[in-house]
Amino acid sequence: MPDTHLIASILAIEFLSLTGQQSLTNLTYIPHCPSFRGPGHTRFIMEINSLFDVKGKVVLVTGGARGIGRMIATGFVANGAKVYIASRNAQACEAAAAELTAQGPGTCHAIPADLLSLSECERLVAELRRREPALHVLVNNSGATWGAAIEEFPDEQWTRILTLNLTRTFTLTQKLLPLLEAAGNRSGTTKDKNEDGGPAAVINIGSINGLSAPAVENYSYSASKAGLHHLGRHLSQTLGPRGITVNTLACGPFDTRMMAHAFRNFRDVIEEGNPLGRHGRPGDVAGACIFLASRAGSYVNGATINIDGGVHLGAKL
Ligand SMILES: NC(=O)c1ccc[n+]([C@@H]2O[C@H](COP(=O)([O-])OP(=O)(O)OC[C@H]3O[C@@H](n4cnc5c(N)ncnc54)[C@H](OP(=O)(O)O)[C@@H]3O)[C@@H](O)[C@H]2O)c1
Questions:
Q1: Same domain as 219, residue 96
Q2: Quick check: is 316 in a domain?
Q3: What is the pLDDT of residues 88-128, one digit of tens each?
Q4: What pTM did the predictor assign?
């Protein structure tokens, strides 16, 4: 029995190449093929507001009260999402949630948690499951760093940094699978291949320090981020078929508390040494997350995307 949907798709593509058309907007309706619902529908799904829509999505951003996590949470709230933020400082979480909700049109909610601890991760997940039937987007952003000369690098700063930056990304993804799967299946992914909805998205915040050797001695940090990038590739293969994409943003320098010392002492070097002459801005990282979380990014899986102005590619000689 021939697959009529497949044949219709192939005919449509051949039609486009024969007529030199760039889009399907002028095509007539092809019956029974879920991707082709007529010119109006095709135009609608290509419009920015539909293609990049994250309105109503439920999002968890770890470390969302400040720094890069705050930038990401702000972007989602500004586009109508319901965002949860989680980190150790309860007061900072509550204050950020109130400020972002006041900005709207989405909302922001605090569930403070120390993600170094397995039981705290479990408590966060249980609380989220109590409040929501599905999670559309998980942004694993919480992170820490440590720097010391190789002779003095403390053993405990390997355990702490690798646990928070790498292991807990796995822990949260693992424990949130039922909620992520519920979101992916709900909005139609692998089983329903029409153009509406999309997979759930796991977005890990990596670093260019995990791509090339850093100038500073942050051994456990760079190793944790390199591991995180590869964990994302591995998980993309396991979770793609379950309706969840997994991608990593390898961030370059952003002016946050983590980078306060570097920006205080080397701002000129950081900015002038970048091909784009600047550090990262909130829209850079929020925009990438919204892309990955929306239908526009729903075919991106297992990618490591540099959000760094291209600085990690530059030769030092
Ligand atoms: N800034 C950069 O240039 C840059 C570059 C590449 C990658 N990154 C990555 O971006 C992410 C965010 O860093 P940032 O630059 O925004 O620095 P930051 O301002 O220091 O933010 C770190 C975040 O992690 C949270 N956090 C730390 N320990 C935690 C714990 N035990 N449990 C839960 N949350 C914890 C912090 O909140 P609490 O203190 O309240 O727990 C804070 O929200 C990190 O993964 C970092 O590696 C940053």
A1: yes
A2: no
A3: 999 999 999 999 999 999 999 999 999 999 999 999 999 99
A4: 0.88
